[in-house]
Design goal:
Distance between the termini: 71 Å
Shape: elongated
């Protein structure tokens, strides 16, 4: 016989053995004999799931039975919106006409960071300390 959990309004959660055929039936509290309903205790890992993760799981469950249909035009519009958002986020913090040739190498205060690029006597590129195992071309 499995062990089920029940909740008494006065004494809280208690456990009781019951046949599987009576899994949904209430039982009496061992202390006050009040009829108590069975409860299902959710593990904390499930209860603490992030809201975004929970929404994604629910969306995936819904899509399994009735997937969203998107036309090619809707797809291209969504991709264009995504590209515009990325382009907006990658703009330099100091304006587009500063003349520095911005390529993402500015520090947090807008000053240009120095590159670790060095050249060997033979004219080969060398990046000391960054990734010595990488071969430049």
């Amino acid at each position: 016989m499995p062990l089920y959990e029940y909740k008494c309004p006065k004494h809280g959660v208690f456990q009781e053995l019951a046949p599987m055929s009576e899994h949904d039936q209430p039982t009496h509290c061992p202390q006050c004999q009040t009829l108590s309903a069975r409860v299902i205790v959710v593990p904390p890992e499930i209860a603490k799931v992030l809201k975004a993760t929970q929404q994604a799981v629910e969306r995936n469950e819904k899509a399994r039975e009735s997937p969203d249909v998107m036309t090619s035009q809707q797809f291209y519009e969504r991709e264009e919106e995504r590209r515009q958002r990325q382009a907006y986020q990658q703009k330099p913090p100091h304006g587009s006409h500063c003349g520095c040739g911005h390529n993402g190498s500015h520090g947090s205060n807008g000053e240009k960071r120095r590159s670790n690029l060095m050249y060997t006597a033979e004219g080969n590129k060398m990046f000391p300390g960054m990734r010595p195992w990488m071969i430049s071309h």
